[in-house]
Amino acid sequence: MIQVWGMTDVGLCRKENQDAYAFLEHPVTGHTICVVCDGMGGPAGGKMASRIAVDTFLAELEKVLTKGMTPQQLREASSYAVSLANKAIREAAKDTEEYANMGTTLVSAVTYPDGVAVINVGDSRAYHISQAGITRITKDHSLVESMVERGDITAEEARRHPNRNLITRALGPDALVECDGYLCELHVGEYLLLCTDGLIDTVTDQEMLFEVLHGDSPDTCLDRLLAISKSRGAPDNVTAVLMKNA
Question: How far is Cα 161 from Cα 224, in angstroms, rounded to an integer?
């Protein structure tokens, strides 16, 4: 059985929440689908892009999922749904000038027995959390991630870098969107956390690990993580989805 909790908050500095998330259980196959997006491109555009991405991704993935799909097929189906979400954002951007530069990140997860198929575009992340520790599944498509890979800066320096929010991939800007896919084991008692950079930039991995495993209850875990973010200024919108294989 998969349990899911979600949270989104405008934070303490932004006027509008441009993040979006959703989750559902597929009515036929029983797969749990979760998606988190972080919009960008002006006051109206960011909110519109993330909402279109979430809604289109879920709708298109729900259409193509069938019983008995392999983990690899689930990953490919997720990638297909991302491409259609990208197309929908670009179609909407053509009609209204204020939406011209809109885009969004996306990170998603689709369950299969004892595992999840994860897709990401941009710098929203997926973490696997268990008694063994916390492991980041996804790789950021960002300027600072490239700098870390080259050895120019450390991962800790990347957290504070002035250009940490510059992403190199997103849904919206280009006709073809390239996403990365991963397969991750998720056994009974283990968690998957999907989140935007508003959480990542203000809460450490170890704090996420502690609150998920050792906090009062999974039901209130995301509220506690949000409280930590707000105690540090929460300069961006903060969104997260927590999944547990129960």
Answer: 26
Sheet holding 191-195, edge to edge: 2-9, 238-245, 191-195, 125-130, 133-136
Say which residues have a Cβ less than 8 Å from residue 12's Cβ, sequence separation at least 6.
230, 233, 234, 235
Q: Is residue 123 within 8 Å of residue 140, measured between CB atoms?
A: yes
What residues are paired with 215 via a beta bridge?
none
- Contact by Cβ (8 Å): 215, 152: no
Q: Residue 106 is which amino acid?
A: L
pLDDT tens digits along 13-42: 999 999 999 999 999 999 999 999 999 987
Tokens found for residue 45: 């555009």
Q: Name which of 119, 146, 128 is nearest 60 in CA terms.
A: 119
pLDDT for 95 equals: 78
Rounded Cα gap, residues 227 and 23, in angstroms = 23
Question: What is the sign of the dihedral through the CA atoms of 150, 155, 156 and 161?
Answer: positive
Q: Is the entire prediction scored with pTM above 0.90?
A: yes
Condensed to tens digits (0 to 9), the pLDDT of residues 153-212 reads 887 777 778 777 789 999 999 999 999 999 999 999 999 999 999 999 999 999 999 999
How many Å apart are CA 235 and CA 239, to the nearest integer?
A: 13
Q: How far apart are CA 120 and CA 138, in angstroms?
A: 7
Domains and CATH numbers, the chain: 2-245 (3.60.40.10)
Distance CA 228, CA 207 (A): 9
